[in-house]
């Protein structure tokens, strides 16, 4: 009788263990199915967000181009808020951030102003010796002679190069070993190969304008002028800027705009270099697209100083 009871107890114990194991296996399967379903839902949501962000980006771009064609290109108030032409970001709506950079407000890479470029590179965090080396190397790379600037480099410094002609694209800066790696991308926010042929200091990014004026910080009157609240004469009086035939205070037709749209956790970004001429005699010349970049190249630079 004792043996029989033990046998029954053993069978009951085995059945209990089997039930526990089966329950654990079913729990693992259910957990896997739940996790898999959750991931599928998240993936579907991400895809939906990306598609919505892309749709919103195209809608924002269409609205921006319409505004640029129908409004004066002057920094300050416009129909939907405030916009700027020196690369300062502004919101078009809850999801879209836009920046517009007048190419007249950047240094012409093909005709670099040595003093301003050196001053700019110093303001970007480099000492004067390194700033001069970068500036002189960029100038030597493009000029037609073989005369080396004090801190520059000519043929003897390269296996291939220098070009001895204007750079055809900004990315060629990467070919110069004298330019620190981290400076190569940053510098491209301050120079252009699409210059309209003159310089507009009012539309220069903060650090470049400060370098041009050779001041530590932009004064309130300068900021007021950039926002369209004072006259050109006021700006000249305060800035003590020496103007010549190559300096004009009006926004050019050559613009670069960046649009970044975020929906959920997804961001779509685009950058365009364009020439906008609403008054062109030829319909096909009202908008010329010079370059297009998607992704990281189109992301908004949020590190710009506040000029409000």
UniProtKB/TrEMBL annotation:
Residues 109-194 form the T2SS protein K first SAM-like domain. The chain crosses the membrane at residues 12-33. Coiled coil: none annotated. Keywords: Cell inner membrane, Cell membrane, Membrane, Protein transport, Transmembrane, Transmembrane helix, Transport. SUPFAM superfamilies: GspK insert domain-like (SSF158544). It is found in: Cell inner membrane. Its main location: membrane. Belongs to the GSP K family. Gene3D superfamilies: EpsJ-like (1.10.40.60). GO terms for biological process: protein secretion. This is Type II secretory pathway component PulK. The keyword Lipid metabolism does not apply. GO terms for cellular component: plasma membrane.
